[in-house]
């Protein structure tokens, strides 16, 4: 995993147990089946075969056998393969091959709750006895799992699901999410309303500042 616009570290997992000299090896990384990301040929970086979008964006740490991919973007997500060939008499022989999957993460903004109403409704002091609420969070990646609402009063908390709309920006590929909820106006008891953005098992969740009614 790598944060958006940060450096991604992709490991070759090559033990080099034979202590082979780098000058006898060809190391190359590719994305998918046809894009060459980085190539080290007998100790020297080679740029002839690189896919244009990776030029000047990669560095290889030959001590750790790790590729640094600079300014990682969402378009860089995917599977990368590290292939190491040993130069022996005759044709080069593949002595190591490994794969890793790159996922990009961009932090969502803290969810924010807003009350939706018209001036008329406000003047009439909730004539329909319902609260119209929305909760929004933006600029995140990957797509969130869901957004839920927590309604707490006295010692009980209920989790509700409203109508959730998820949209993706065509240019940045980042996601915005908004959930809307209609609930009866709480009476006679302090009620705290929060919304929770679920990002998946490994990324956890984000919670809004509670709204007290």
From TrEMBL:
Major place of residence: membrane
Superkingdom assignment: Eukaryota
A Pfam family this chain is assigned to: C2-set_2
Ig-like domain location: 1-86, 111-195
Keyword Glycoprotein: yes
Subcellular location: Cell membrane
Keyword list, A-Z: Cell membrane, Disulfide bond, Glycoprotein, Immunoglobulin domain, Membrane, Receptor, Signal, Transmembrane, Transmembrane helix
PANTHER family linked: T-LYMPHOCYTE ACTIVATION ANTIGEN, T-LYMPHOCYTE ACTIVATION ANTIGEN CD86
Protein name: CD86 protein
Provenance organism: Rynchops niger (Black skimmer)
Gene symbol of the encoding locus: Cd86_1
